[in-house]
Write a structure and sequence with these properties.
This protein is of the alpha/beta class and 235 residues long. The chain has helices at 9-16, 32-47, 60-68, 71-75, 110-132, 136-157, 188-192, 202-212, 225-234; strands at 3-4, 21-23, 29-30, 53-55, 80-82, 100-107, 161-170, 175-183.
Length: 235
């Protein structure tokens, strides 16, 4: 495996669940989804009383990016890192990057969401307006959708969530893309909604939550957060 992204993570997850060691030595590219996914794999293992070893990438380019995105700030919670203290040249540290919209950030309490929204607002013009040509209304919609996705973790997950956002320029299509990773290993849609609804399977529960605004709460107006996120993404 040389790339750890949303396209390859399922394969990594399948193999890593069976092994005591996650081997990233050959990885030469990792995106926010890969980083957040690794941390959530660690969160899942922690809940099972398991602490895996994590062989770090040999590529200094990848190590510097992991450092830049604050991955190591959280990785020690879950993994035995090998090597335990990777050496990264000073020239590769934080000042080298300008396309990070949000470093990897944990989502555990309401204050975390306020911090996340504040950080994204501060960088939105430099990245979203300049590179993706978002106007103020679209930027506000982006921030609201991000806040809703994070708030859902606080209200329903019962575990620690993570978020990370990065802008990339894909030369093969000559286009700027923002990758957003928000993830948790929570109780899932079906269990969250089980007090009010009886769904035949997880897919049915997800459809009701995303498409029809189903909520575990009886309060009027609840349950439309993720449906609103879906509408924003569709736009």
């Amino acid at each position: 495996m040389t790339r750890l992204t949303e396209d390859t993570f399922e394969d990594t997850l399948s193999f890593s669940r069976k092994s005591s060691t996650i081997d990233l030595r050959g990885v030469n590219f990792i995106d926010p989804y890969g980083m957040v996914g690794l941390l959530e794999l660690g969160e899942l293992c922690k809940s099972e009383g398991v602490r895996k070893s994590l062989n770090l990438p040999e590529s200094e380019e990848v190590l510097k990016y992991l450092e830049r995105m604050d991955f190591f700030r959280f990785a020690n919670r879950y993994f035995r890192l090998k090597p335990p203290a990777p050496q990264i040249s000073d020239k590769y540290l934080r000042s080298s990057y300008s396309d990070v919209l949000l470093e990897i950030t944990s989502i555990e309490k309401a204050d975390d969401i306020h911090f996340i929204v504040g950080e994204v607002k501060d960088r939105a013009h430099a990245i979203l307006a300049r590179h993706l040509h978002y106007d103020d209304s679209t930027i506000n919609g982006f921030i609201v959708a991000l806040s809703e996705a994070c708030q859902n973790i606080i209200e329903h997950s019962e575990t620690t969530g993570y978020v990370g956002i990065q802008k990339y320029h894909f030369q093969n299509i000559d286009k700027n893309i923002v990758k957003i990773a928000v993830m948790d290993t929570g109780i899932g849609f079906r269990k969250s909604l089980s007090e009010r609804f009886a769904f035949k399977d997880d897919l049915n529960a997800i459809e009701q939550g995303l498409l029809h605004g189903a909520s575990r709460y009886t309060d009027e107006g609840r349950g439309h957060g993720l449906a609103a996120v879906r509408r924003f993404v569709a736009q």
